[in-house]
Amino acid sequence: MKRFLTILLTTLALAGLLCVSASASSFDGPAAELSAIGMLKGGPGGFDLEKAPTRAQAAIMLVRLYGAEEEAKAAYAAGDLKCPFTDVNETAAPHVAWLAGKGLANGTSESAFGASNPCTAKAYTIFLLRALGYQDNVDFTSANAQEFALSLGLLDTSLFTGTFLRDYLVSMTYQALGADLKDGDTYLLASLIESGAVDAAAAKPMTEKIEAYRALQTSGAAAAQGLDTTVDAKMAMSFSVKGTDGGTSLDMTQKADATIKGRIQMVLDKDLQMAMDMTVTATDGEITETEKMEYWLKEGVAYVRSGEDAYQMPMGMGVDVESLTALMEQATGKTYAAMLPFIDSITEKSSGENTVYTLKLNNAFAGMINGLTGQILGVLEAEADLDMEMSFSLDGSTITYTVGKDGTLKNAAADLALKAGVKASDGKDSLTANVSVNLDMTMEIQAMGKNVKISYPDFSDFEDVLGGADGPTSIFTAA
Asked: pTM for the complete prediction?
């Protein structure tokens, strides 16, 4: 049992650190906001976020992002624009014709645009980069478009698994509207308002949100290279588990309160490096126990030490280190831009010499955690020969950031109500666990950027997580 809990704690730690990037979610709120400014239009079935966008639909969105929809429609109606493709309907024809005339979209052949073909995440990324003023084969190539977009603070489309959906298109569009244009003069939505393509009054809620978050982004920019922060958290938990351990039946329910104190360090200048030292004190009202857990990531290997147990797990299978590094970059310096589609509202107020930003997150945040956890579980399943499932839901979530008078991020606090369900089996034993947690957490920033330094212990006595010469043969029991 203890070995499984160690693995589970590692999973939860990673999930907590990574829960700031995009993934499979339902962006109903952002879709409604895009609709309010004329950027997205639904049909009788609503916005159809669960459906795949077509190339024609993506073309319409791109023309709107250029602020050229009325221009395209007027020119097409006057006969000044003609659509060179035979498979485009009258709704999309002005848009496709305008893009083709500008050299911004090609067909799948001389006569076909591939209008009904599904649009891919990569193709839509390229569309967004063009709308921001970047040029193909000058600023980026088709091969590196998604990586280049990530470097600009756009969403990490590698996290979109399965079919690319309108849901994802909405989140990517929303994110791009808050991104800088290539010339750096302003951000995309502001430029559309300035040109008259978007009504300023209709866009006011979005512009206020984007501008507050852009200021917040600047405050933590140095964290893109490194972050060193203390963590102080209080949790009220209820926990139930059913299953078997070595053939013995398990069925227990428990409530407990816990405090977590520790430190997290991340260096992202080159390869991702991490150190996490956490002390957990838990009580069920009768018994109080304290457990110290340490976690490190160095040169593509994860190391975990909990009590007298010390394990290591290569990270090279399931998720490569480069992808994990990209995620962590979004979890630090790029977080502030990359979270725009997950924010329901932002309030800003002064507190002495500081500025306090309070973010209310929308329902897409829970879906994001589920998607990221699925990736992490994939690594554990591959490395430890486990069959695992985990799901999260959030009843409410608020994050508060405090920025000093020098414009630098000082601390962050989170108030979350989280529920998690876990299923695990190693072919011998299995269990189902359900956890409900109310979390109140504060992080005080100690250093950012190149000022972050990590010291590592000697890892020579850390066992392989499964299957070592003297290691366990089960996730629950020792050999």
From this structure: 0.75
